[in-house]
Amino acid sequence: MQVVKKIEIITDTLEMNEVSAVLEAHGISGYTVIKDVTGKGERGVQSGDDLTDVFKNSYLLTTCAPEQVGEIVEAIRPLLKRRGGVCLISDAHWVVH
Amino acid sequence: MQVVKKIEIITDTLEMNEVSAVLEAHGISGYTVIKDVTGKGERGVQSGDDLTDVFKNSYLLTTCAPEQVGEIVEAIRPLLKRRGGVCLISDAHWVVH
Amino acid sequence: MQVVKKIEIITDTLEMNEVSAVLEAHGISGYTVIKDVTGKGERGVQSGDDLTDVFKNSYLLTTCAPEQVGEIVEAIRPLLKRRGGVCLISDAHWVVH
Amino acid sequence: MNLDLVLSNLLNPPVLFFFLGMLAVWLRSDLDVPQPLPKFFSLYLLLSIGFKGGVELHKSGINSQIVLTLLGAMSAALLVPFYTFFVLRRKLPVGDAAAVAATYGSVSAVTFIAATSFLSELKVPFGGHMVAAMALMESPAIIVGVVLFRLSPKSGESQSEALNWHHLMRDAFFNGSVLLLIGSLAIGLLTGEKGEAALHPFTGDIFKGILCLFLLDMGLVSARRISGLKKLGTFPIGFAVLVPLVNAGFGILIAHFLGLGAGDALLFCVLCGSASYIAVPAAMRLAIPEANPGLYVTMALALTFPFNIIVGLPLYMSVINSLWR
Amino acid sequence: MNLDLVLSNLLNPPVLFFFLGMLAVWLRSDLDVPQPLPKFFSLYLLLSIGFKGGVELHKSGINSQIVLTLLGAMSAALLVPFYTFFVLRRKLPVGDAAAVAATYGSVSAVTFIAATSFLSELKVPFGGHMVAAMALMESPAIIVGVVLFRLSPKSGESQSEALNWHHLMRDAFFNGSVLLLIGSLAIGLLTGEKGEAALHPFTGDIFKGILCLFLLDMGLVSARRISGLKKLGTFPIGFAVLVPLVNAGFGILIAHFLGLGAGDALLFCVLCGSASYIAVPAAMRLAIPEANPGLYVTMALALTFPFNIIVGLPLYMSVINSLWR
Amino acid sequence: MNLDLVLSNLLNPPVLFFFLGMLAVWLRSDLDVPQPLPKFFSLYLLLSIGFKGGVELHKSGINSQIVLTLLGAMSAALLVPFYTFFVLRRKLPVGDAAAVAATYGSVSAVTFIAATSFLSELKVPFGGHMVAAMALMESPAIIVGVVLFRLSPKSGESQSEALNWHHLMRDAFFNGSVLLLIGSLAIGLLTGEKGEAALHPFTGDIFKGILCLFLLDMGLVSARRISGLKKLGTFPIGFAVLVPLVNAGFGILIAHFLGLGAGDALLFCVLCGSASYIAVPAAMRLAIPEANPGLYVTMALALTFPFNIIVGLPLYMSVINSLWR
Ligand SMILES: Nc1ncnc2c1ncn2[C@@H]1O[C@H](COP(=O)(O)O)[C@@H](O)[C@H]1O
Ligand SMILES: Nc1ncnc2c1ncn2[C@@H]1O[C@H](COP(=O)(O)O)[C@@H](O)[C@H]1O
Ligand SMILES: Nc1ncnc2c1ncn2[C@@H]1O[C@H](COP(=O)(O)O)[C@@H](O)[C@H]1O
Ligand code: NA
Ligand code: NA
Ligand code: NA
Description:
The complex is a heterohexamer, with three copies of chain A and three copies of chain D. By secondary structure, chain A is α+β, with helices and mostly antiparallel strands. Chain A has helices spanning about 15-25, 70-85, and strands at about 1-10, 30-40, 45, 55-65, 85-95. In chain A, a hairpin with a 2-residue loop joins strand 2 and strand 3. In chain A, about 50% of the residues are buried. By secondary structure, chain D is mainly α. In chain D, about 80% of the residues lie in helices and about 0% in strands. Chain D contains 16 helices and no strands. In chain D, about 60% of the residues are buried. Strand 2 (about 30-40) of chain A pairs antiparallel with strand 2 of chain C, so a sheet runs across the interface. One adenosine monophosphate sits at the interface of chains A and B.
């Protein structure tokens, strides 16, 4: 098993395309997205009950090499700064197959 | 990046309102909920295929300061004791923005 | 709180039944599944927008005792090898109730 | 019982789609009706049946016999959970007994709707106020069940916990299905023929089709639950088949005593004989956490519902036919 | 205003279901219309209204007055966000002002559809080109809002960031609801009576029923947002009620000046007086990130929409009736 | 080919909505039909087409020619994957060859349904047994494909793994779409005119409308897949356009040989010429893991399906017209 950093990003569904674009620009080729999760944060409740995607969040899970994590974080931070959201980093082991 | 504790709670969808109320009572102002996840545990299979929310789970993800985690856990435990469910605690880094 | 290993598996929705069967065969009695998540990986984009489950992923979360993790990983690896997907292992604490 | 009735029930498309759903599970097919489609069908069915009932009520107006019928319905909804609780108590822990009692005291909207489509198949008329009767019968059993649970000699901790009456009342009287049913009934009552003219193609013409889709899903869901019966043991299984018969019998007697027409009588008896698996389970899960939903939902969904749909409807109808003539 | 109009609006089933939805929220009921069902209803409604408009246009053909109406509609959609921006600017930060201006410059398809069902209730005819007018009025306000935001003295950083015009144009003119509406209109125009014969049971007969389900959900959604009004303060609340009146007034004048029929006039005035909460919020969220959606969505959804549905329709109609005779 | 046919196909609303869906993707619009709505439409379409076919069969009864047609259909479903496999084998790895062969041996229900709506547009009658033919043609190709894969000289490991025949048979014969189709057919056959009277407003009147919504989504889905064609190279692309033509040609010959009417002939030829993208991909994914779904799904969805809908239908019909007169 290989040591990786696990990155979890939660932000507006409308924002996710930009997030994944940034990740791919930094060579992240694999990620998982859970669309339309609800939540609460500084910008209030995201109930996702209306017809726009304005109040819907999405959750993105990806991994990167430990040495790469700083670069990714710096690339994501401005997006979160502008539109809010959350980014969590943790340690994990990747099952090589 | 700031050190936080990551808290994951999985329990009945019907129960989630109470869980988030408890969290907010303890000053947790941000969390993410994924409604209608399925699963299996001591109380059997939660297939979520019928019309009630009785056999549906929800997944809640939140974070707190390391020193606060004990208090939160004590507040959540009775709920899980009464109705079942799971609470996982792990270490993570929060990307400050 | 009790120390556990957290296991996250992401693979084809069509594959998940086999995955959970393998887990149960190894005495894992509790897990949570999030159906129909989307993603990108070696096998390309899984957009989940068509009528088959062929391009849909599911996410499975479970836990096991630290000493059991090697056995589980070896049981899961061939499935991932054959059909792709991801398995992440990390440390967590289980709130006993 | 009369063979024609059995056939005209079994050859009713909705019932056949119910079989198809069960068959799919037995063949281990991947046929599935994913959420929230079943939710959509049930919203549609509640809205339509409520609205049509309201329009009929608007036409018929309210008379003393209708009031009597509604009172009879409410008293049945109060008595059934009461007596069943003491039957159940002898074999089941108090929480389970109370939850099952509430389940059987309340009603199954889908069984009621299947009965209306059976009646229209037989061209037997029925009154719009029976929909009001159904609406009135959904909630009381929830309250009775919880009160009985609370008053019983303490065994589980949650019995002594403070009960949130406010929540309980809301779950009983304002839960989604009750509110939509009563609201649509009121809207039908208000708009009458004019509203009917506007909505009939939606609430009337395509009704049976949506019912087919919904019963297809019900077939899937209840067949999936049948595997859970093994765990229950003989008492709950026997209860789930016999008590509906007893309650349906009571229902027929009350209906006869109240002098209802044959159509209204069937609906009344189906309301008494059916068990809830939507409003009640959700309320019980919150109010009586130690009760096992694997018990009360499985009994209602895997046994009582199919039994009423397949055997009950023609059986009750033939009894009524013989008594009423 | 004329009581008959008030009643025939309030007794229109879709409006009653809107009330039912609001009531459910006030009673804290768990009644819910889960996604993607509302999305389904809105796809259906846009497809149907667009298609029917196209068929009508196919029958009526295009004449100079229709062209004038469309030009009038577009200019209204350009002027409203322009003047409202400067009103809003005096109290709100530039981002919010621009977003709210765009919201009120654009249109609410559901309000338009409710107006058509109100007219059919009153048996007042209207032209298919009004659907084209609605389609034309959705997008311009988005562009105007963003341009005004960009030209204002810089306050937020994102004002100076390079604007992705390509994205903006796409979000404005090719967003899902605009495209489906225009596409269905074109399909109706192409297939005419033949298409109508094939689709009318779907786009026509069950239309009011689906509208009831959709307005039930709209009632839930807008009542949930009402709690958010407290945070907004008096200015936005006053704006959300008064400006629609003013814009509707403008609309009536333009309609009178263009010599539209009473039905077309009501639709024109409703287009001017309504505020968007589908196309615009999504576009603003991306183009003006510092604008607070809790402001512009809440104003449109919790106040302006119910106001137009409940008070606006009969009020505007009675004004038109008095002016037109 | 006959221009009238081309037009009456292109001006058929469902086909126009298919174009609208494709257009939305090319314009990068956010127009979307979120799951499970497409699933709902396909459940509806399979139920309706199956039920209507059953009712027709109930009326027509079963005669020797119907039996011959069904036998012809089955043999086509067995031969097509067989010969195509050896064509494909020369260019593709064994897994991909087997999966593509199965895909083209099976049928596309939506293409079949579009053909029926094209025929009703042309007022050309067709028999209910053609639905039975479709049901019979879905599964065999799956078995043939897997068997050919297993018998080929080993290249991938999963070829030597033990095959779960039990699972394979279930996926082939009891998968959701096949079961719903056959079940609805049986229900139509059982209930006949009586069932038709009850369900026609649902299965008949609104059918074309739902088909429009479904083809709108199919347009989105298949246009999204077109980008995947680049990766495939010329052979699969050529195959995806030419082989349907060849198979449709075979189909027309068999139909002519069997002496089918023009309507049945078109349906027969569409069944031969179409490729599955629902039942087969799911089965192949499990039975032949090394086959690349990006290949077989993309070929069927991004090329063969639109080709048949847009070019195929009028082309096949004009050939049939010329041969049949
Ligand atoms: N502490 C947290 N833990 C988990 N999710 C969070 C947390 N804070 C915010 N979120 C999620 O991030 C979304 C945007 O956060 P915010 O920008 O603070 O409104 C919220 O709607 C939540 O879904
Ligand atoms: N070990 C586990 N890992 C992940 N999820 C679990 C685990 N055990 C239980 N769950 C989830 O928690 C829900 C309730 O658990 P229980 O109360 O044990 O039935 C289950 O339906 C699962 O979704
Ligand atoms: N690095 C990663 N992080 C998170 N999820 C991943 C990652 N790589 C792949 N996935 C998920 O696993 C699925 C299958 O991966 P693959 O077999 O590589 O195509 C993808 O569709 C993603 O949903
Ligand atoms: Na009952
Ligand atoms: Na406006
Ligand atoms: Na074929």
